[in-house]
């Protein structure tokens, strides 16, 4: 069985060499046991890094024939970089893992075990993540809860450390979305799956390439590409506001015609204006989020452009 390990890298010069050594060592052990075939590869995807990541990948590929590289022509984000690697991989199974090895590669043999016993998708989930900041842990927890509440099927505490078999990969190829949220997409593929658990460790070197801005954008992509609930909530809010404004108008008319204290009401004029104005803007904002994504999807732009490859054979 040929295995490809796909590693997205964005400005990872500080960790890449040791990551490469650790993964190659693991692959040697697996090959020695006959658990993976020769021709198994380690595929680094350079996501338009601005430091020396690509030249470093080139050197690593020159040092070991098992190392291959793909360079995207510019930074497209973790999910797209991952997809580029998955689509270029030719193994019978592909494992994706982050470059900083915060996710423990030592569970890979267990993942292969599940694959061999028939699981087409193997999710690696984080047992404990005390090495992550309190903020990251709690926001991640809340996010999983929110997604579940919205009816999106997610594997709890699973990020992008997973094994995909050839059939799952070919199925994934059929999904053409630009707003990629792989951890929502993969459970949709179906196929028998399994999970393995590991403890998340701290980043060995370098800083997180996922600042708050990127985390929010990934989170928003997850919600909007898998759930229409916010759209429905906006519609419900709009309906509620409409009913409220009808009642309010009735009340204004009643004051006007049935009482003597019909002072031209400043409050009753201005409050609905503010209220409805605000509400409309809110709803338009929600609509805009979806519209923006529809706009991006209908263009069917290529999701990435590969500038160079090294060691991929053909
Ligand atoms: N990454 C990427 N493109 C980006 C941002 C990140 O390919 O635009 C990669 C990064 O090199 C790493 C993985 O995505 O391999 C996860 O990033 P990081 O470890 O910084 O995220 P965190 O663990 O802090 O969530
Ligand atoms: Mg990390």
Question: Key features?
Answer:
single chain, 314 residues, Spore Coat Polysaccharide Biosynthesis Protein SpsA, Chain A, 2 domains, eight-stranded mixed sheet, binds uridine-5'-diphosphate, binds magnesium ion
Characterization of the model:
The chain has 314 residues and is α/β, with parallel strands linked by helices. The protein folds into two domains: 3-211 and 301-310, Spore Coat Polysaccharide Biosynthesis Protein SpsA, Chain A (Alpha-Beta Complex); 229-298. It is 51% helix and 15% strand. The chain has helices at residues 13-32, 53-63, 78-88, 108-116, 134-149, 166-173, 182-189, 212-226, 229-258, 266-298; strands spanning 3-9, 41-46, 67-72, 93-96, 121-126, 158-165, 193-198, 306-310. It has an eight-stranded mixed β-sheet, with helices on both faces. Helix 9 (229-258) runs antiparallel to helix 10. The chain is elongated and about 95 Å long. Bound molecules: uridine-5'-diphosphate and magnesium ion. Magnesium ion binds at residues 98, 100, 102, 203, 208.
Describe this structure in a few short sentences.
The protein has 314 residues and is α/β, with parallel strands linked by helices. The protein has helices at residues 13-32, 53-63, 78-88, 108-116, 134-149, 166-173, 182-189, 212-226, 229-258, 266-298, and strands spanning 3-9, 41-46, 67-72, 93-96, 121-126, 158-165, 193-198, 306-310. The chain folds into 2 domains: 3-211 and 301-310, Spore Coat Polysaccharide Biosynthesis Protein SpsA, Chain A, CATH 3.90.550.10; 229-298.
């Amino acid at each position: 069985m040929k295995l490809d390990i796909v590693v997205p890298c964005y400005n990872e010069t500080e960790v890449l060499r040791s990551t490469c050594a650790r993964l190659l060592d693991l692959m040697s052990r697996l090959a020695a046991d006959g658990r993976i075939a020769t021709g198994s590869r380690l595929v680094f995807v350079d996501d338009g890094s601005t430091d020396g990541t690509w030249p470093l990948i080139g050197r690593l590929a020159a040092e070991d024939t098992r190392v291959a590289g793909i360079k995207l022509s510019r930074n497209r984000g973790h999910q797209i970089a991952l997809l580029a690697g998955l689509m270029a991989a030719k193994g019978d199974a592909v494992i994706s893992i982050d470059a900083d090895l915060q996710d423990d590669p030592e569970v890979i043999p267990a993942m292969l075990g599940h694959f061999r016993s028939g699981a087409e998708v193997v999710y690696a989930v984080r047992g404990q993540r005390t090495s992550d900041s309190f903020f990251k842990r709690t926001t991640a927890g809340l996010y999983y809860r929110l997604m579940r509440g919205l009816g999106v099927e997610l594997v709890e505490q699973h990020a992008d450390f997973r094994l995909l078999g050839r059939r799952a990969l070919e199925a994934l190829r059929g999904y053409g979305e630009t707003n990629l949220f792989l951890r929502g997409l993969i459970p949709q593929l179906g196929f028998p799956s399994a999970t393995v658990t590991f403890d998340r460790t701290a980043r060995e070197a370098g800083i997180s390439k996922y600042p708050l801005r990127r985390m929010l954008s990934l989170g928003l992509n997850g919600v909007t590409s898998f759930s229409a609930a916010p759209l429905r909530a906006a519609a419900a809010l709009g309906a509620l506001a409409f009913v409220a404004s009808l009642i309010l108008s009735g009340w204004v008319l009643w004051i006007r015609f049935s009482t003597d204290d019909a002072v031209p009401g400043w409050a009753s004029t201005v409050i609905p204006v503010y209220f409805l104005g605000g509400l409309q803007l809110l709803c338009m904002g929600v609509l805009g989020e979806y519209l923006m994504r529809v706009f991006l999807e209908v263009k069917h732009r290529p999701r990435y452009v590969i500038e160079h490859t090294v060691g991929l054979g053909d």
